[in-house]
Amino acid sequence: MVRLYEVAHSRAGDKGNVTTLSLIPYDPALYPVLCEAVTPEEVGRHLGDRVVGEVVRHRMDGVGALLFVCPRAPGDTVTESLRLDAHGKSMSSALLEMEVPLDP
Q: Do 76 and 90 touch, CB atoms closer than 8 A?
């Protein structure tokens, strides 16, 4: 098991109560492995109560990246949230803490 930050990096964006998280492997050869290991269901479970509803995953095969669309509660926006850090970048850091079954 490895944490995603060992094999990939992430970027985030947030608009209203939707956060998008990209996952980009450092080594392009790991892209197919991440496609198998990092499912939208696992991402939703890992992010816990930060996500409300179904996480949708988009494969970006041309650039070797995954994009996760994560819905949040109506009041959980950057400008309205009572969370310490409501920005998507904190969620991307949380995503990179996820453990997956692969060897870097």
A: no
How do residues 38-83 score in pLDDT, each as one tens digit?
A: 999 999 999 988 888 899 999 999 999 999 999 876 666 565 555 5
pTM of the model: 0.84
- Dist. CA 34–CA 66, nearest whole Å: 8
**Type of residue found at 12:** A
The 3-class SS string of 28-89 reads HHHHHHHHHHCCHHHHHHHHHHHCCCCCEEEEECCCCEEEEEEECCCCCCCCCCCCCCCCHH
